Amino acid sequence: MPVFLLSDKKEFPPPHLARQDGVLAVGGDLSVERLLIAYRMGIFPWFSEGQPIIWWSPDPRLVLYPQEIQVSKSLKKV
User: Fold this and answer.
1) How many whole angstroms separate alpha carbon 40 and alpha carbon 32?
2) Which of 7, 17, 71, 78 is the most buried (most CB within 10 A)?
3) pTM for the full predicted model
């Protein structure tokens, strides 16, 4: 699968086109508008400072349900 280069348009390719490792696209910006679009599609940025923004959409994705999280006694002490 190719890695898509994002333009100034606030849009993403479909997440099912991500590579096997989850990389979907490179570039764009971290504007609120772009982040909201990405998160709604199951896409998130993950990159190192000074590097291009890499957008990920791994399959399967982890979903946390706050009401189902059980915090251990030792973690509660932290």
Assistant:
1) 12
2) 17
3) 0.79
